Amino acid sequence: MRGWLPVFKKEMRLYFGSPVAYAVGTFFLFIAAFFFAPNFIQYADVSMRAAMQPQMGQSLNATESILRPLTYNMAVVLLFFIPMLTMRLFAEEKRSGTMELLLTYPLRDGEILAGKFLAALSLYASILALTLSYPITVAWFTRIEWGAVLTGYLGLLLVGAAFLSIGLFVSSTTENQIVAGFGTFGALLTLWLLGWFADSAQGTLRTVIQQAAIIEHMESFAKGVLDTKDLVYYLSVTAFALFLTLRSLESKRWRG
After folding, report:
1. Going by C-beta distance under 8 Å and a sequence separation of 6 or more, which residues neighbour residue 141?
2. Which of 169, 155, 188, 186 is nearest to 86 (CA)?
3. What is the pLDDT of residue 243?
4. Residues 6+ apart with CB under 8 A from 42
5. Rounded Cα distance, 110 and 114, in Å
6. CA distance 107 to 196
7. CA dist 38 to 2, 14, 133, 141, 218, Å?
8. Exposed, middle or buried: residue 89 (CB in 10 Å: 0-12, 13-18, 19+)?
């Protein structure tokens, strides 16, 4: 099952041999900084005033005020960020004709899929790790709850894996990168908007829609709470989307 490794290496070379990894990484870090800076400055201002009025300082919590909103906002930014990482993976192979060549190699479809998925996940995890500079900056000035912060990052890793798997599936259904990018964004946005539709539903339907909404499950992680229900949800979405991608690759072999 080591056939995935050459595919993984090839994809990593393509990511870092083009402007994609650098442009997407810079974009994500800039947007994250955009959400981080205002809350950090406001917290610093309140902290200075609390130094003169000690009763104000009793309710100050850097994790709650700065890092929890940052975690949730970064999850929302992934709606725009992930399609840029996945739109090329299969669509470009199909457009350039290398997909047929790849399918003739002594590789199983699962190995091809694993190599591409792990490459995209590794790049995403690397960029996500760079954002740890924000909680480290806060921890330099005040005490933070590292357990809650790391739980939030676990949630970001899981929701990112789910988004990547959906992007891979969409990319496997077309040979146009633009269509793959917009298709992935549309699918992710639909799953995100389900949370809004739940507010207008009643009874069992409301519960079903709430459970299907993909961003709703990030709330517990952002609060530093590790809920098995949310963990199972993201792993299930990832597994199901990868299963559909595998079926899509197999259909390519049948059609020739």
Report:
1. 44
2. 169
3. 96
4. 65
5. 6
6. 43
7. 46, 36, 16, 16, 22
8. buried
Percent of the chain with pLDDT over 90: 46
68-106 pLDDT, tens digit each: 999 988 988 999 899 999 998 888 888 887 777 777 777
C-alpha span between 181 and 172 (Å, rounded)? 11
H-helix segments, 87-227: 91-96, 98-104, 109-130, 133-141, 146-172, 177-198, 203-212, 218-222
- pLDDT for the residue 133: 93
Q: Look-up: residue for tokens 């793959």?
A: 180
> What would the two tokens of residue 45 be?
């201002």
Tally of CB atoms within 10 A around 233: 20
Cα separation values, 170 from 131, 142, 176, 215, 251, Å: 28, 44, 10, 19, 14
d(Cα 62, Cα 56) in Å, to the nearest integer? Answer: 14
Residue found under tokens 């921890």 = 139
With b for 16 or more beta-carbon neighbours within 10 A and e for fewer, the 41-74 pattern comes to: eebeeebeeeeeeeeeeeeebbbbbbbbebbbbb
Which residue in the block uniquely carries the two structure tokens 């908007």?
A: 193
